[in-house]
Amino acid sequence: MSLDPRTPVLVGGGQFNQRPEIGVEPEEPVDMIARAARLAAADAGAAELVERIDSIRVVGMLSWRYRDPGLLVAQRLAAWVRHTVYTGNGGSHPQALVNDAAEDIAAGRCDVVLVGGAEAWRTRMALKARGERPDWTRQDDSVPAPETRPDVPMRDPSEVMAGLDRPAYVYPLFEQAIRIASGCTPDEHRDAIAALWARFNEVAVGNPDAWVRRRCTAEEIATASPANRMVSSPYTKLMNSNNSVEQAAAVLVCSVEAARRYGVPEDRWVFLRSGSEASDTAQIAARPRLDASPAIDAAARTALELAGLSLDDLGPVDLYSCFPSAVQVAANAIGLPLDDPGRPLTVTGGLTFAGGPWNNYSTHAIATMLREVRRTQRPGLVTANSGYLTKHAVGIYAPTPGDGFRRASAQAQADAVAPTPVVTAYTGPAEMEAWTVAHDRDGRPTTAMAALRTPGGGRTLARSDAPEIAERLAAEDLAGAKLDVAADATFELP
User: Fold this and answer.
1) Which is nearest to 334 in space by CA: 303, 296, 381, 366?
2) Contact, 212 vs 220, CB < 8 A?
3) pTM (2 d.p.)
4) What is the pLDDT of residues 36-67, one digit of tens each?
5) What is the C-alpha to C-alpha distance for residues 226 and 246, in angstroms, rounded to an integer?
């Protein structure tokens, strides 16, 4: 194959599940990343590749605070790196880092790049419950700071006042908007999203790197029970991202020249044809629609155009899957059917079953995508998502290079869709647009949180802590109901 020697190529992916509860001695996160890197090099058929890494880019971790984890990983691998990156919070970072790596390799700034991340969350929480801290590596301020990537914002005051302060509340709000737009009854929609998640579970059952490989039926997923409590309607625990995991993943990206120099067989090569990014407005209340994402639409279309491909050309797909609403919004934006038996919307099984290691899920998706592109010999698409369907990164992977790697922002196209006017400190009448109800650990409805339309077409967010309102909204379909909002962002039903 005659190729530009600077063409970027992914050559290996490694994944590692650590299970201290069954006797595995727990490693700290940087050691887990180093282990995943060695697995990636083994997958590439070139073990020495880890010593040739010149840039390490690490996805932000929550289970331990490091100043420059990439430096520590380099020391574990005996790699003389000259460049490190450490990101803030956001699930789009893994794909964006791979896009960055490909761009830097094509420009001659790097030859071999490691992108990876890890979480040892179960060990961290078990020690915290005993009042202990792990004896893991500490770095003080004398360690030079790496290049960074910022956090994706998730704390707008309008959302905090309304109680919408975490993904487990916001994504169910989006789900209600999807249901209302579809015209389905609550029971019909619950059954549909449970069936979607059962299909994701089926993929996880067959994925050797998944955290949960137990088969779950759609009925089990949909039904609240002591083992599957309702978290925030309509989502049971089995519809939520599973962050209580100990997982690491890494991928190796290098130039064609380096792949040949270090003896990586060409049957291990997977080409990143294209990458694109775009963001929806960070403020939820300003979204044009709560059941759609102009940014995913724009980024996916841009990535496919850059890759010279259409939807019909795609084989494997992995849509970011923290909650069912994220998958549905992405699939609808891209034009992918939710129930194609020949093409599941995940290659891993998703964040509920394959595992949701906070910001690092998509590194696992990319590592698995390499395997699937090699197996099917067809191009694959990965979407990665930060915040509340806020920031998106897309990558197109293929067994052949096409016209080489191309990257472009799709932000201008996303911004062409006008936002919704946000009404803050609102007092007066409003109409119910979408809602969710948080439940306590005993299954009782506790807090109702809602997106409301105000006269004139604006949107405001509000909450109610009244038990009777929470119970009513958990049981009834009140789309379009008229209600009253107070200046403290609370609402009353008539």
Assistant:
1) 296
2) no
3) 0.98
4) 999 999 999 999 999 999 999 999 999 999 99
5) 24
